[in-house]
Amino acid sequence: MSGCHLCVHGHFYQPPRADPFTGIIPRELDAAPYANWNERITAECYAPIAEAGYFEHISFNMGGTLARWLEGYDARVYGRIVESERACYAAHGVGNGVAQPVHHTILPLARRRDKICQVRWGIASFEHRFGHAPEGMWLPEMAVDMETLEVLASEGIRFTILSDEQVRGNLDAGAGPYRVRLPSGADMAVFVRDRHLSNALSFTMPDPAFIDDWLRGQVDWRCRRGGLVLIATDGETFGHHHRQGIGVLGGILRSGAAHGYALTTLGRYMREHPPEMELEVVGDTAWSCAHRLSRWVVGCGCTSGDSRWKGALRRALDNLASNLDDAYEDETKKFGLDTWRLRDDYIAVLLGRMDQDAFLAEKGLAHLSSNERQRLLQLLEAQLFRQRMYTSCTFFFEDLDRYEPRYAIASAIRALALTLYATGVDLSAGFRRDLRVAVSERSGQTGASLFDALIK
Ligand SMILES: [Zn+2]
Question: The whole model's pTM is what?
Fold first, then answer.
């Protein structure tokens, strides 16, 4: 192995902040002097990184909630990010953008057809923004299991990124990429981030004035081994979590010649260095919970206090999801349709690439009566909100009585309201009953009281 390459990958993401009923972001007082956190983080992070031209030199993924909002709020910054990716693609035949499952769902916890939906919707969203197919996909919270990797492979994704604690095997090839053999016989390339180096930026960002010292201490010795060094962290680390992060990022991007590395992106590097060594993936792991995904299932020591609400809320959502699916499936079966393919393809309408009439015509459904048409479209919309219920942020924090769980319950209410309009079946009583068991330790509110307040 000769020469050292370094890649900085940024995961740029914001949780949903808009009111699920109005689509408007309420004023967030703690984001002052900005109207909300999206605006503030744009000023601190996205805009300066875009204006400095750094998006061209890093590898990145941008979550759907952020991309959609940024496109409407600051077309200039959004345009620069998209142009950076397209320029990289034009220059190298492979872009520096990486796709993301569309609703930031913890995929190992989703059933297979929902994994497929999240991945297909993520790929379609990427193509819509960047004009070409993605080669890589970022997994929300790096949460991984074999079925998730199988789905990625069958959808044409060639690589993903994991953290070094999520893999087993010889890491002599640095960040890789490594080949992971899947039970079906397919394989997936995995880049392994350097956790300590990535955390050295996330938690102890240096002063940009001393970037040479920092690189000497942190990067030079890693580079002497050759191969690829991969820093992968939240993009907001640069500028938002740490004000001086923009300067540090610039320093890392500029200083390769003096410190013995060439900058690269993941797609380019994999083209020049296809995976040779193999690794095993430790399933049901994530980069932000050391307890086998418990953070998003039943709660764990990653968050303080009584986290039993997590299991109760998840159970309520799962029961509702199952009922919503039955209602949707019953309707689509009447027309002899491939139920889940229809939902996957509906992303074309959600992205505005096609109107509803054209979509139905393409599916051979132009003949539907106006009642049938309306029912089917309402049930497809219900499936969108049912997907949104599972945004990982719902379960990430310590308490039930917060914006994120409320967002999940509100999305559930929209899904069950659409199902009620379409079919006359009211699923709210069962859902509300399940929610009673989810209790906020801090405020004493239950999922049912949050539900009642939202219904009002
Ligand atoms: Zn944990």
Answer: 0.96
